[in-house]
Design the sequence.
């Protein structure tokens, strides 16, 4: 079975990649502000774990919103980083590439706290899995860490600090701003991990 991970280079996807060791890593530059750093980190992690690294580049920034494009959030955004239908877009693009790779399964690194957004919930992944299974290609979508916190995922994965510290979670650019929700999550996760050691 050929398995791939949607690898962004953030704490969760990096830890999941280490835990599950799929054959392929798929990373996307879809016009997000931190694309350059995300691809750099993802390339390092894929190389260290012996995964084939596939990169998809397609500029969707004109459809984005908020922190992820360093712009204003669209009216009705539930949070500063919200990008409408983003996870649906990313899964769809990865599966489009996955067809040519003979992919059977695509895993995503969503964790419990991602349930703040509808497209980070178990219900969303059940529905998009059904949709992908319905269509030609029949690629299965799985979210193995959807019931875990980031801390729990890191602990279960056993990822060493030498790899985990490569992770880049900032939403606003290639250098951590220290203020966005991605940076706040990164800081909270390491504080909690350090407190438990």
Sequence:
């Amino acid at each position: 079975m050929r398995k791939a991970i949607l690898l962004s280079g953030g704490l969760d996807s990096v830890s999941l990649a280490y835990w599950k060791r799929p054959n392929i890593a798929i990373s996307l530059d879809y016009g997000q502000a931190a694309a350059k750093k995300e691809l750099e980190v993802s390339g390092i992690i894929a190389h260290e774990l012996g995964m084939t690294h596939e990169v998809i580049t397609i500029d969707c920034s004109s459809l984005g919103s908020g922190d992820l494009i360093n712009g204003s959030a669209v009216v009705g955004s539930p949070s500063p980083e919200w990008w409408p239908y983003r996870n649906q877009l990313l899964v769809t693009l990865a599966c489009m590439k996955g067809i040519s790779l003979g992919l059977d399964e695509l895993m995503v690194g969503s964790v419990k706290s991602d349930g703040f957004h509808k497209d980070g919930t178990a219900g969303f992944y059940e529905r998009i899995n059904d949709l992908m299974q319905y269509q030609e290609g029949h690629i299965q979508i799985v979210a193995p860490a959807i019931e875990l916190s980031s801390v729990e995922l890191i602990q279960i994965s056993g990822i060493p600090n030498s790899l985990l510290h490569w992770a880049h979670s900032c939403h606003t650019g290639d250098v951590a701003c220290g203020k966005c929700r991605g940076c706040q999550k990164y800081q909270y996760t390491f504080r909690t991990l350090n407190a438990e050691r």
Notes: DSSP finds seven helices and five strands in the chain.
